[in-house]
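Reminder to self: keep the SMILES exactly as supplied, no canonicalising. Ligand is zinc ion.
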Amino acid sequence: MGPLAFEIAATIRHDGQGGVADGLATVELAEAWVQANASLVGEVLGRSFDASLLVVDDGVREQLVGVRRAVRSLFARAVSPALPSKADASRLLDPAAALRRLNEAADKLGTAHLDWPEEGEPVTRWSPESSDPLDLLVGAIGRSGIDFLAGPERLRLRACPAARCVKYFLQDDPRQTWCSPSCGNRERVNRHYQRKHAGQALASDL
Ligand SMILES: [Zn+2]
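Structure tokens returned for the bound complex:
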């Protein structure tokens, strides 16, 4: 798993059949995403996040989709001049609007204080103005986006260039081109096929 902001961006992925699957398309999917990522939310907050306190309805889903759009718009900027993910390249927020949206989300966590329990490690504790679990969730995603984009991991962010892939991924090694071995294999097969057909077209012209 990547950081929380990366995980929400990854809810847009290829469906394996040339289309795009949206992991936040329905309230049920959004609820499942929140549950699956509760521990990452807790890591950002510096304390555990109880996903069961949040009633996921369409309003919550829309908030998640909104902050995801800001994150993905900034991911597009981060990989530039390489091309962004094709899934939402035509409906990205402009950078200023995306920054505003992400910062507003992060504001919900309030101020950072240092807490250093006698028996334990120093940790960042946030002092949110509300204990609304939606504010905490959106705030954690915003905060995670800021830390990710302002930190060293941004330099490893890539948009997979495979024809049917729409994924952002974190490059493990400078030679890694594709998000996964299956994208690499599929592209090699495609290129081989295209070369073969280009060769045949040439032969029939002669
Ligand atoms: Zn891929």
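Points to follow up:
Helices lie at 4-9, 27-36, 38-45, 58-79, 95-107, 133-150, 181-205.
The chain has a mean pLDDT of 92.
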